[in-house]
Structure formats: structure tokens, C-alpha cells
Amino acid sequence: MLRVDRMEIIPVLGIGLAKEGDDVAELIMDGVKKSGINLEDGDVVVVAHSLVSKAEGKIVKLDEVTPSHHAIHLAKATGKDPRHVETVLRNAAKILRIGHGVIICETHHGFVCANAGVDASNSGGEAFLITLPDDPDESAHRIRSGLRRLAGVDVAVVITDSWGRPFRKGAVNVAIGCSGINPLLDLRGRKDLYGRVLRSKIICVVDQIAAAAGLVMGEADEGTPAAVVKGLQYDKTNIPARTIIREEDEDLFR
Amino acid sequence: MLRVDRMEIIPVLGIGLAKEGDDVAELIMDGVKKSGINLEDGDVVVVAHSLVSKAEGKIVKLDEVTPSHHAIHLAKATGKDPRHVETVLRNAAKILRIGHGVIICETHHGFVCANAGVDASNSGGEAFLITLPDDPDESAHRIRSGLRRLAGVDVAVVITDSWGRPFRKGAVNVAIGCSGINPLLDLRGRKDLYGRVLRSKIICVVDQIAAAAGLVMGEADEGTPAAVVKGLQYDKTNIPARTIIREEDEDLFR
């Protein structure tokens, strides 16, 4: 029989609702223990940005937002709350498209996503919005250091959000921050099954990890904001997720 | 301790190189046995389209392709072999963008991807190209029926390809065909962690499954054209993957 390397994706249950100032690594370790997971060197810990954003205080109270004229105008076009649109505009470096109830933005990080990542789900109720962490790679680095300190393990950390995309319906979990992993796997120069040298193949490993974890990380009421991936072989070179961003002049759709 | 549902992703090793007329379900069952995998009801079998395409004879001999004037012109613009470009054009219903060495097409199925899914990797050598199956949902259905017949199991089948996308570098595995599964999970109406009703959340489950399997299904010389996902809860309603395609008038980037 062949030697088969199984990969396991284990939801981290029992993580409580985070509040500003919480240590995300502690919240995760608490869930890891409750879930009976044996966290080991080389595991990948996947964390929903909502947990990170809350701990980092990236919550906006709608009551405290005064919408600009531009936001009021866009709110009419998109059917959104003007204060929600104002928050989107504050988190956007550029607006790319408007339509079908969404504002496709380039965020200050350079990510292209709907509504600049500003979300009303899991924000804490109707009166609040949640925004992306200021520097998700730095957040991932902090969580990774925290897990090393708390559990003595060297893991990779991937921070995710659930985003729609052009051409295809439905959102998929993608990576917005990472630490302890090379987000891209460059296969160029390696050979295919028939010995032909691959010329253009680069795989976005962290987006595949994010999507895989998305299968066990619910966003609805049973919400599970973290998962542990075991048994994955990956390049441990520490390269930030912001390197995934395709430069505008190499992008055919911006 | 909490009850944790682990998900496992197991590469199917030992599948030989496929040739036209091969029964894909037989090839997969052969690998499943060699890999010591216990295929069970409810598992998801993920298959790279290259295996399916080869068995379905979707291989193009470059020698037999006569490029049109249009193909010769585009070949100069993209640095590709004119016969490769001709094959792309024959597999495209529409060209959306040209640049950076790729021709972004809408395929006859309606998928938007680079080079209409025509690939020189794993095609059988420099003299060949591989194209997408004519009807990947039907291919998935046939494989699923074959696995039921051969192994007496009721599984879901997802057929994948590895595609680049706008805004983000690197390819990810996506679903181009499926059977025995609802590709989209509609969470609208369910409540978030704080009891707020989700208004817009639809998850593309099969793309997340494809990406997860992509982590163990290498494209380089160690190539593993199939994987088995165990322990995933999914909606078994049989809906084709073509329903993932975002209609042009709902797409902000076409």
C-alpha cells in the first residue's frame, strides 16, 4: 500500500465572543483545549478576521458616524445605510465598481473586495459594523508569537475573510494576513506528469488553506472563528499575505 | 470536551496516466484501493479535470491544428504558439481581455478563465494540449454513477481545474463540475453570532472543496489527480456546478 499523507482540518470550538483588548492567541488556545486539539509544530492555525478585528477594536458604532454628501448619494444608489457607506468610504483607497448593492473597493491594504471589507455580520448587532484589521500580516505575526509563548509551538497563522469574486457566485474564504508561511507556491521550473517543464504555475497556497478552513468555520450562529490544519506540507518561509495582491498594472480587471 | 467534527482530505495516489476511453471511476477506485482509503457514503471525491479530459479524449495534437489569421495575430500579441491560440479560440465563446501572455475567455460552458481552460501542462508532452470536458457536470455524474456501481457507495463528485483570478496572484483550484452536492450554501435568513439575520451570505461550497483538495493534489511531477474528503457536512441536493456562473448582467467585471 502507498504511503498517504492525510490532511486534517479541525474546527476550534468553544471560543467565546471577543472584545477589544482580548489576546487572540489566548482565545484560540482556550478553544484548542476545549476542543481537545493537540496543537503541534507545523500546524496551520486559521483565524477569521472577525475575531481579530474585534480584539483589535475595529468595531464602528453606527451612531457615531456622520455620513458625507457622497456617502448619502451612494447610499441611495446601493440601498445601504448612509453611515455604513461612509464607513466603507473611510476604509477604501479607491472605488472600482458600484452596483447590485455593493461597492467594490480597493482597501488601504490594496485588497480588492466588496464594501472595503466593512461588514454588518458578526459585528455585535445592528448598531455596529466590523472592519478589517489595519495590518492583518502583523496581526497574524502577533497571534503566532502568542501561540509560541502560550503553547511552545511553532505554527503558521492565516487570517481570513469571506469574499465574493467576479464571474462566480458565492463567497469563498480567502487569506488577508499570514505569518510563518510562504503564501505563494512557485512551481515554475518543475516538471509535469509527462516531464514538460511548467512555465506559469504559481499556486496561492494560503487562499486554498483559507477556503479549506472555510468548510468548517461557519459564519452563522454556530460560528467557529478558527480551525487547525494538520498534515499539510508547506514552505515555512515567512512572507506576508500582502504579496498576494496583484499589482494594478498586471491586473486585467482593474 | 466539545464534540469536534474533523474533516480529512486524503490524496488518492497510484492513479496511472489516463488514456482516451478509460473509465475514470475505475481509475479512481484503483487508486483508492492502492491508497488504502475506505470510501464511504457521504464522502466527496474530488477529481482534476485533466484526468477526466484525457479519458474523454479532450486532447488536441498541435500538429493537426491550422491557425487562423486571427490566431496568428493574437499569438504575436501574447507570445504563444499560434496553434495553441487557435485551440483557445475554438474553445472560447467570447474573449474578455488580452494581456500579460493570457487570453481571458468565456468558455462555451460560460466559465470565465485564462485561455478558455486550454492547457499545455499534463497534456501528454509538448506536442499536445488538453481542453476542458464538454460537460463537466455530466462527467461528474458519470463518475459518481461509476463509483456507486463499482464500490456501492453514494458519494458526491467535484471536478476541478486550477485557475488564476483578478486582483490576487496565484491560481487556486475551483470546481467546474459536480454531482450529488449543492454547490452553493445559502445562509440568508440564518442568524449571525449576535442574532442578526444574515442578508447576503451565499457560500460557494464546491469551490472551497476544490481549493481544499488542491492542497494535496499536486500538478507537478508527483501529480495526484484525485482526493477524498471525509467528514464534511454538505447539502446533498444534486445541483450542477454551472449554476455557480454569475450571469453577465449581475457581473461588475465583465
Give structural notes:
The structure is a homodimer of 254-residue chains. Chain A has 2 domains: 1-57 and 135-245, CofE-like (60s Ribosomal Protein L30, Chain: A), CATH 3.30.1330; 59-131, Alpha-Beta Complex (CofE-like fold), CATH 3.90.1660. In chain A, 25% of the residues lie in helices and 24% in strands. The first copy, chain A, has helices spanning 24-34, 49-55, 69-78, 82-90, 136-151, 205-214, and strands at residues 7-11, 44-48, 59-61, 92-99, 102-107, 112-114, 128-130, 156-163, 172-179, 184-186, 202-204, 226-230. In chain A, a hairpin with a 2-residue loop joins strand 4 and strand 5. The longest helix of chain A has 16 residues, at 136-151. Chain A is globular and about 65 Å long. The model of chain A has no long low-confidence stretch (mean pLDDT 92). The interface between A and B is large, with 85 and 85 residues.
Name some characteristics of this structure.
2 domains, 12 strands, three-stranded antiparallel beta sheet, homodimer, 25% helix, 6 helices, five-stranded mixed beta sheet, CofE-like fold, 60s Ribosomal Protein L30, Chain: A, 254 residues, globular, alpha+beta
